[in-house]
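Record type: monomer structure entry
Structure origin: computed from sequence
Chain ID: A
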Amino acid sequence: TLLREAGDLDAAIDSILAAAASMAHMGALIVARTYIDRARRWLDDEGVAGDSPLRGRVLYGDAFFRFSALEYDECLEVLSPAQEIFQGAGDRLFVGRCRILEAGLYFFQDRFAETERIAAELLDDLSQDDHELRFLAVHKLVQLAGQRDDFESVCRLAKECRREARIMGVAWRERMAEVTLAEGEIALGQIDRAEARLRKTVADCEREGDMFVLNEALDIAIWLDFLRKRHGAIRARLEVRLAAAVRARDRWRETFFRILEALLAAEVGDDAVASEAATAMVTAFEGAVHDEPFSRWALERTAARLEERGLADAGGLVRGLYEARRRTVRAAFGLDTD
């Protein structure tokens, strides 16, 4: 607001869109929405032309918000005109950002071939100096490798992301790559290495005030807590994170924490609590799929724990959800679903 009052509309728009993106990243969707709406009002008040790059940046910010809110059809509706504006202006960076967001959109719609095509096209077209777009494109390949359970590739590609972030000098992206690398290491059974990596990343985030990556690191560290049977630490973390996701209407993260809540209940809760948590998790998952290496492991482990306890109904419900999701993923990759 101060930048706008000072007459620097460009800087004001960049500042409020950065704030909106930060809020969307962290799942604070209600706050992010208010920032996007405010930016649009500023452009309207100033009579900014419809094909202005400023309009394009606000449309892109709106598209990213809608992507974060799982509003995929609406995301594409505002992303397409944004990309047209940037193409007309010859803005290669924002055209690339739009294509990456489109690839992410397809990824979460299980359109993996389209995600891979866009990432590969970008990497073919980009120079070695296009570090931000290379980082983003390689990150899409990390996600695809994770869906294939190819964790050797997850770790290799996460190191590529880390290298690009380091060259850019963007510390939060480098820290995020470390979290992704740690997740791959856990999936490979490299527990001590992953724990040391996450411990350092958490310390770096706390020192730099990086709340977004801090939360991502602490969330992945819950996987280690399950493996180490630190159930008290898990319960304390989940109570805070699940409540925050529900309050922010962040359905994707709510599903993640419902999965972990169900696993915790399956491991240490009584029968009624375990069955209730499993039902709540399935309801959340059906509304917003969360399928990443940790949540996938937790989903399968929840089914196994419930079955071991003789909770056939709850175990069958979770097992059915897990197997249906794996069939969907295999079909999306064109693999045999039997």
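Annotation 1: The CA atoms of residues 63 and 75 lie 5 Å apart.
Annotation 2: The two ends are 57 Å apart (CA to CA).
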